[in-house]
Amino acid sequence: MALNRWTIGWIVILAALFGWEIAAAIVGGPGPQTLSEHVWLWFSWRGGWLVLTIGLGYLTWHLARGAWKKGQR
Fold this sequence. Notes:
The chain is mainly α. Helix content is 75%, strand content 0%.
């Protein structure tokens, strides 16, 4: 696996997200803090869970299909 600028960028973004999530979980406080609490808030409207499920299903399919296509080379 080559560590080009895109790979390094994604590693930095995911590390920052992980650090942000840990900090939010430790600090706590009133209102939504963590990503999961925000997702619960954002998709709490009627039909929101269907939209979230479809979106996560697509993301799973997209990632699995990319891994499957890469394995065929």
